[in-house]
Structures are given as C-alpha cells and as structure tokens.
Amino acid sequence: MATTTRGRAQDRAKVAGGQDHEVRYEAKKEGVSKGEVKDAVKKVGNSRKKVEADLKGGAPSELLPDRQ
After folding, report:
1. How far is residue 10's CA from residue 1's CA, in Å, rounded to a whole number?
2. CB 51 within 8 A of CB 31
3. 20-30 vs 34-44: helix crossing angle, rounded to 10
4. CA–CA distances in Å: residue 15 to residues 28, 60, 66, 67, 68
5. 45: which residues sit within 8 A by CB, 6+ positions away?
6. pLDDT (tens digit, 9 = 90+) per residue, 30-64?
C-alpha cells in the first residue's frame, strides 16, 4: 500500500465518499455525476470494484453473494 506525505497508509481499492476529490475522480472516470457516485458508495460500500460495478448497472459475479 502507498503512503501519504504524512506517513499514513493509502488504500486505492476504496472510494472515500466524503472526499470530494475522490468522488470527482470516480465520477469523471465513469462518466456519471458526483451524486451518483455518492449514492453508489452508500448502496454498496466503499469498495472501488463494487462502486464501479454498481455505476455500470451490474455487479461482477465474483462480487455477488452466493445464492442457495
């Protein structure tokens, strides 16, 4: 994991919904609004893979819970 200038660990696999720059980046990357990114984070959590899958309208099979 990368560290910040303050020496803190930085996890790029997560989207910090409260950080405007991260929400803006993800919104631009996915071609959606900042509100849609924030809604996706609230809905599926802060995992970048889950947020991106939700924004694309579906979840990859490895992220879906097992159905029995």
Report:
1. 6
2. no
3. 100
4. 13, 18, 24, 27, 30
5. 51
6. 999 999 999 999 999 999 999 999 999 865 555 55
pTM for the whole structure:
0.72
Cα dist. 11→24, 49, 62 in Å?
A: 17, 13, 21
Give the number of other Cβ atoms within 10 Å of residue 31's Cβ.
8
Place of tokens 């990357």: 29
Cα 48 from Cα 2, distance rounded (Å): 16
Give me the residue label for tokens 């990114």.
37
